Amino acid sequence: MAYVEIKPDLLRWARKRSGRSLFDLGRRFPNIAAWESGEARPTLKQLESFAKATYTPVGFLFLQEPPVEQVPIPDYRTMDNEYAGYPSPNLLDTIYICQQRQEWYRDYMRSITEEPLPFVGSLSLTGNIADTAAEIRNVLGFDLNERRRVPTWTEALRRFIEQADEAGIMVMCSGVVLNNNRRHLVPEEFRGFAIADDLAPLVFINGADTKAAQMFTLAHELAHIWLGRSALSDSQPAILPGNDVERWCNQVAAEILVPLSVLIDEYQERTPLRDEMDRLARHFKVSTLVILRRIFDAGGITYDELRSEYSRELQRLIRLTKGGAGGNFYLTQAARVSKRFARAVVISTLEGQTLYRDAFRMLGFSKLTTFRELGRSLGVA
Fold first, then answer.
1. DSSP letter string over 51-65?
2. Which of 189, 206, 260, 336 is the most exposed, having the fewest neighbouring CB atoms within 10 Å of its CB?
3. In terms of Cα–Cα distance, which of 283, 234, 309, 220 is closest to 84?
4. Cα–Cα distance for residue pair 357/319, rounded to 1 Å
């Protein structure tokens, strides 16, 4: 039996990179501890299985030393204004997949002679926050009075995504890599990213995050699109980023959702905070997390109170949303890849412009019946 000469450091790096422990991988690879110590070597077949289990390109394992992987878009993630650390394979693969989808969609838009979207990159950091937010709301058709008539803020979030989609922005929301339910995305690592392009702007929202947090993430990433700057973010209403770009996007996001001048008129300072949060959330059809940020902006609470109340409210919302139903697969699938992108892929494939193999790869499944049902759910037969 032929064994492969592999540096133990590479095996340790791949395991740690994947976030899996020796105990976890040891059930599948009983000799992994000996491999990492250099006392034993794997066969080629074992190495290939190990690479697959750790989501590592097998070629990386033959390098002389572990590679330094970098996020392929500007990385503005921070945790308490400290750099968030090295990217996981799940995060990297998600960005790579989205870049491939964007490249395909850009070529598709060129093939149907669509014009560039004028709002991408149309704003700057020097613009007035209120005017900037108003311009974004105007392009999206985001009407505050209409929004108040929506039954719930979760319905308002769905409508918000639809408005971005209708404006020409691909909004993808998923909590896993492709459709692999064993490869979960972690909100603590990132909440979203934007890849700016005047033909194929793309926003990705971490679907593993709470619905309440997703609303602010979407608004934040849309601000990046209008700014024309791609970015990987950890956008939260309670964070005051040290980075100028992230701070600007947070301010614009909050103003898009809840204009400060309107909030000040509505805010009842003498009402208990819990009651006021709930009332204003119902009034503006946004999450209580966003309302907390705006009460802080209005001077109703201190920054320490904002952080404390935000943490408490986030944990409450997480408890409320645990154990939810899975929902309709085809609606979920369209949300994961964006309705705009899915519809374009189905149309192009049915017209013979895109191979079924390539369509399946970009959409994340492998069955023709699934493809056809997805097309029907999108109104494309």
1. HHHTT--GGGGGSSS
2. 260
3. 234
4. 40
pLDDT tens for the chain, 381 residues: list them. 788 999 999 999 999 988 888 999 999 999 999 999 999 999 999 999 999 999 999 999 999 999 888 899 999 886 544 445 678 999 999 999 999 999 999 999 999 988 999 999 999 999 899 999 999 999 999 888 888 888 888 888 999 999 999 999 999 999 999 888 889 999 889 999 999 999 999 999 999 988 888 999 999 999 999 999 999 988 888 888 878 999 999 999 999 999 999 999 999 999 999 999 999 999 998 889 999 999 999 999 999 999 999 999 988 888 876 655 455 666 778 889 999 999 999 999 999 999 999 999 999 888 899 899 989 988 886
Task: Collapse the DSSP code of 21 into the 3-class scheme (helix H, G, I; strand E, B; otherwise coil) and give the result.
Answer: coil
Give me the domains of the chain, ranges plus CATH numbers. 8-62 (1.10.260), 78-258 (no CATH), 329-377 (no CATH)
C-alpha distances out from residue 59 to 37, 62, 208, 297, Å: 21, 6, 31, 51
The tokens for 306 are 């904002």
Cβ atoms of residues 62 and 23 within 8 Å: no
Amino acid residing at 196: A
Give the chain's radius of gyration (CA, Å): 23
- d(Cα 329, Cα 332) in Å, to the nearest integer? 5
pTM metric for this prediction: 0.90
- SS3 letters across 109-162: HHHCCCCCCCCCCCCCCCCCHHHHHHHHHHHHCCCHHHHHCCCCHHHHHHHHHH
- H or E segment and range at residue 204: strand 202-206
CA distances in angstroms from 96 to 92, 104, 178, listed in the order given? 6, 12, 11
Report residue 132 as tokens.
């900037």
User: What 3-state DSSP class applies to 46?
Assistant: helix
Q: Which residues contact 344 (CB under 8 A, 6 or more apart)?
A: 105, 108
CA dihedral 209, 152, 284, 136 (to 10 degrees): 60
| Cα–Cα separations (whole angstroms), residue 348 to 112, 261, 340, 369 | 11, 46, 12, 17
